[in-house]
Amino acid sequence: MNAPSQRNRGQDKAAESPTLEDVAERSGVSTATVSRCLNNPSVVSEKTRARVMEAVKALGYAPNFGARALAAKRTNTFGAIIPTMENAIFARGLQAFQEELERNGITLLVASSSYRPELEDKQIQSLVARGADALLLIGHDRTPDTYDFLEKRQIPYVIAWVHDDNEARISIGFDNRKAMKLLAERVLDHGHQSLGLISAQLEGNDRARHRLEGIRDAMKERGLDPSKLQITETQYTISCGAEALATLLHSDPKPTAVLCGNDVLAAGALLEARKQGLRVPQDISITGFDDIEIAEIVSPALTTVHVPHSNMGAGAAKLLLAMRNGEDVEQSVELEATVVERDSLGNAPT
Amino acid sequence: MNAPSQRNRGQDKAAESPTLEDVAERSGVSTATVSRCLNNPSVVSEKTRARVMEAVKALGYAPNFGARALAAKRTNTFGAIIPTMENAIFARGLQAFQEELERNGITLLVASSSYRPELEDKQIQSLVARGADALLLIGHDRTPDTYDFLEKRQIPYVIAWVHDDNEARISIGFDNRKAMKLLAERVLDHGHQSLGLISAQLEGNDRARHRLEGIRDAMKERGLDPSKLQITETQYTISCGAEALATLLHSDPKPTAVLCGNDVLAAGALLEARKQGLRVPQDISITGFDDIEIAEIVSPALTTVHVPHSNMGAGAAKLLLAMRNGEDVEQSVELEATVVERDSLGNAPT
């Protein structure tokens, strides 16, 4: 619960957040015009609107006075924005995140961006406007505007599900490229020469791009031409995984092993293989990524990459709590992801 | 986005929401004491704390002045509280809910209560304090305090996933009892006489209780003794479903058909049956509920109840938007749930 006694403190400090007046001053229009731009843009000229929106962005203004007042005090509410709730890939990590927060008296609110950066940007603004003390975000890919906004509003955030030495932001996760390389090596160990990949959309998804690079790394090291990797990009659903396998089976040469960007796609690929009368793994090998529950209930069970969901979620909560408490958090945390061999990977057909 | 121009209006109307002072006056203590009760209860005597909390509840006070100010205006943020994100049972409905809201410029924030009423109560207070215009809730079961709070704060809400003629609150959903009765009848049509049920915890979960009643209704109608139904209550996870089947297989008489409270439990039961060398459906029939994607990827595919996820989610959004816009919504919406027969239900072994 919050400290109502901080009400006055909150109001005194409210000036630290940009105000409607600041936006009006910077864009050289009246506050009424700024208000119209934000609430009823169709009645404002395109030119005025562009000028006002430029000022809104430059100042990091969130059009909500509640947030401005709240910025100076804790709400004990954290936000998380995940790309999807439609399948369970973020569920276990998020559950661990929430449990750790709850032990510290924090309520978690979650938004789901459907892998759309512009929607995520809106949701971040909304969570900040609603007074979220800190945010959990998935992966580094997002618009510069979003990062600008977070910086200007000084909202602590942690990036999860990735570890990328090239990025300076504080993150907790595993190296997607290294993890997928390990799995690809295991596939190549089974004698497969012709590989396929069913991937999530690569644009705006650093995890997906790194997984692709991991396969290419492994192919290169084994003297295979990485440009021969057959790639299909699709959405993270079972039916998309099934369709994508059907597409890959039309390519020449036909892949003998299909690596999937996650377990959900792999479950779909298994369904399609069964439908086409292909035996897994005798006729074709199929692998997943994530090691969520679905990996064990499909038949054959999936060879996949085990992602440290719970440690990642709980660790992200600890990092965010430390940041919110004003401690210096300087180091990203790298966790291990390991290959789990089950029955969906076998030797290449001879 | 919000109307910053409403800032003053918001402040003028703030008095409509209960203040810290109101709580102090009603409980006959200083505002500092109220503040301590809310923020550092261990330093306050139990008696004082009880008196203050009584006043907090009676007044519907949310300890956050931001919320009080926001109560007088729209934030274009709706909240949803679902019992779990750990599996996909609410995912598709929630996605449809979010998409309909998005078309109307509303951002959705979600909280997950882990089926715990006291946590849900906290999350509702937090969403209201953060300015949510309206709420989606699952099922009717929750504490009277929670309903009191919603009423006092005049937050529009819709109950989803149920239709129960005995409840006056506006809801959109299907009749869980009727739906499960239909499925149980189908099971009995296959000659099964000895039934088992793997159910979610019945307390605090009206959907689970109604599903149980539906099975009993069907048994009664066919002249079977409903007290003979073997029931195991557990959590909604795959591994719990597996354990629960193992337990049921020790009961006497051993059930020849096991109905599961949802598809996730049924997937677990299938795994356990396979582990024990039982063929489904030749040796034992297993059914699900929900018809989420998992129902089709397990082997054999699940006979289950198809829940109108998308219509329910989109419909809930429409109802809430109407309420938020001040329209009179007087009628709950009942949707159909239908039985889908796949391969996991067969004739009783002879």
UniProtKB/TrEMBL annotation, chains A, B:
Keyword Acyltransferase: no
Pfam families tied to this protein: LacI, Peripla_BP_3
Disordered: region residues: 1-28
Molecular functions per Gene Ontology: DNA-binding transcription factor activity; transcription cis-regulatory region binding
Record flagged with keyword Transcription regulation: yes
Domain HTH lacI-type: 18-72
InterPro entries from the UniProt entry: HTH_LacI, LacI/GalR-like_sensor, Lambda_DNA-bd_dom_sf, Peripla_BP_I
Domain of life: Bacteria
Key words, A-Z: DNA-binding, Transcription, Transcription regulation
Protein name as catalogued: Transcriptional regulator
Species per Swiss-Prot/TrEMBL record: Actibacterium pelagium
